[in-house]
């Protein structure tokens, strides 16, 4: 066979070789390859899978050295062209290996060349004459029984189930197939994920409500963007309960009508069953048209979901951050709901930020990207101010419902009273009792991050901070010293409060379990108190069941962590209690105020969504903290002004990018030594705008048996710094026991 040498492709192997190679295309596959095709290639002595990244290779090896790819694993490409470009950008920007990016983009089952699940169907061959069939009866009664059963069926019957029901062996059936009496076919089975889970008995309106004037204006602007088929980013800043979802829906309708597809990202699918149900209710004719993409999918479900998208059957994908890689073609609209949520950041390789990747993908696809939030991230706010994004605002709640009244309970004063508890204060308990009596519902909210290692004065609310970094210091039990996890600064823990001289300076915290118990004790015995926490979440349907019970009014008080803070819409909730508003403030993180503010506003937003006004009680030892005061007044603009000024002063994000360099090793001293050696190694070799801090112990100093130290680079340009760091890392003789990773635009600083 003569092999034409003219068709060449560039292929990126999917295993252990982080570079594209050029291959020749064998004749049978000529003209069938596209960018994003999955192929099998020879690599050294192995055969591996790879992705076609270019049809016009830059490198053309000599004819004698040229290798042929082996086969095309799937007729349709597994990546769209925008995803192939996205992979390249993502690897460069986030200092990740191309391969790890492609692994994140393509489900394992697809990469391995697995096919969608099929089932076998059987039906009688209607051309067979009655007498041929009857002839069988005497010799093989079982086969005759199967034939007479199938004769009565209008549609092909599933083979396995039929044989099982009739108690007939596979051999008997095979025999009939061979004789041509039975026809056998394969049919694709769709494992529609989460079907059962979304059947929570909630009524979901199919019809769009009449939009308010504000919603109409916002929707018109988004529609215009979508129709323009040009890249645009809009920040949809709308207070809680202002009806952002309907605005997204209006834009989605346009995108779908023009034949395009839509990507709808949520911080966590499991926490937003209502939103998913609303999207399905509004857009899916049958349930397969909307694909729900989340981390709990089995390998088979993932494969099916992926295929439905890749083959164009589904044009809407709803999912958490990894759904940003769904192989949607003709992408017209990307929605990033609750864009400020830290959950959009992937905390393992490749450490991408789902929101930022969504923006970049929209650019590659000439799509509209809408970032929605009641409490936008400072990054997005800055992008609006610098003119990169445009802002659309929703300033009113639907039906003119009021934002709830927020009361701050000063826990320093409660601490002095004998009749008050430091977990649930007097005013909060009183409000809870009233709600129970009036058959209205309440939510008690506690922050999950129950670190209680920082020092807090219960008298004046003073928190010990690092003088260089303006973040709180961590108390170390072993030597009673306070340390800064950003710069390494340390000093002795004070015995009395440096601010008010109180000797009572403490470390404290409490969990949801305890709150549940105390609430039960303090409320009338017929009040139903139910807790939702991480344990509940591990049981797939329990969370939904609790939410459904709550909606039906079977629960009086729901106790939970931030997983109940967002996205839920319960009209009968009139009281929200925030048990400890200060916890995020005590986190060792320059974003602590931002988190505290966002959480308070989001939690408060759960109250007063129905006809009755809501009330919020916020318990705090630092009632005058700006984030708490701004949240009390729902003063987003005031908060942003204040916080941006603070960030600017320290040149923290969003004024510069932050790259975190984490060193992990089993030996404490050795890990620190190498982190310090590294700092020497890079001395004078980084661009002048880069500021390096550390190394210092990471807040979680030891994790899974490894000690952790980190180093911070503040820079104006990630794309300039990352290649330099990558090159320096290649040169650096890192100990083989030490693992170091770069986390670009780090979110978690723990
Ligand atoms: P947000 O996401 O901004 O907090 P939602 O989109 O959840 O708000 O809307 C809040 C509630 O108002 C939902 O129950 C929604 O169905 C309802 N809603 C939204 N728009 C309208 C409208 N134009 N007319 C009536 N109800 C609406
Ligand atoms: Zn410091
Ligand atoms: Zn004090």
Helices and strands in order:
Elements: E1 8-13, E2 21-24, E3 38-43, E4 46-54, E5 71-72, H1 81-93, H2 98-105, H3 108-111, E6 118-124, H4 130-139, H5 141-152, E7 157-158, H6 159-166, H7 170-179, E8 182-188, H8 195-198, H9 213-228, E9 232-238, H10 244-257, E10 261-265, H11 273-283, E11 290-293, H12 299-310, E12 316-319, E13 331-337, H13 354-365, E14 368-373, H14 378-385, E15 390-394, E16 405-410, H15 411-414, H16 426-437, E17 441-445, E18 474-476, E19 481-483, E20 490-492, H17 512-522, E21 529-532, H18 534-537, H19 542-551, E22 557-560, E23 573-578, H20 592-604, E24 615-620, H21 626-632, H22 636-650, E25 657-665, H23 668-682, E26 691-703, E27 706-715, H24 718-731, E28 739-744
Parallel strand pairs: 9-14, 9-15, 10-12, 10-13, 11-12, 13-14, 16-24, 17-22, 17-23, 21-22, 23-24
Antiparallel strand pairs: 1-2, 1-4, 3-4, 3-5, 6-7, 6-8, 18-19, 19-20, 25-27, 25-28, 26-27
The chain binds adenosine-5'-diphosphate and zinc ion (2 copies).
What are the salient characteristics of this protein?
750 residues, binds zinc ion, 28 strands, alpha/beta, six-stranded parallel beta sheet, Rossmann fold, 5 domains, 33% helix, GIY-YIG endonuclease, binds adenosine-5'-diphosphate
Please, could you describe this protein's structure?
The protein is α/β, with parallel strands linked by helices. It has five domains: 8-111, GIY-YIG endonuclease (3-Layer(aba) Sandwich), CATH 3.40.1440; 118-188; 213-399, P-loop containing nucleotide triphosphate hydrolases (Rossmann fold); 402-451 and 510-645, P-loop containing nucleotide triphosphate hydrolases (Rossmann fold, 3-Layer(aba) Sandwich); 657-744, Ribosomal protein S10 (Alpha-Beta Plaits, 2-Layer Sandwich), CATH 3.30.70.600. It is built from 24 helices and 28 strands. The protein has a seven-stranded parallel sheet, sandwiched between helices. Mean pLDDT is 85; it is low at 193-203. The site of one zinc ion has 7 residues, from loops.
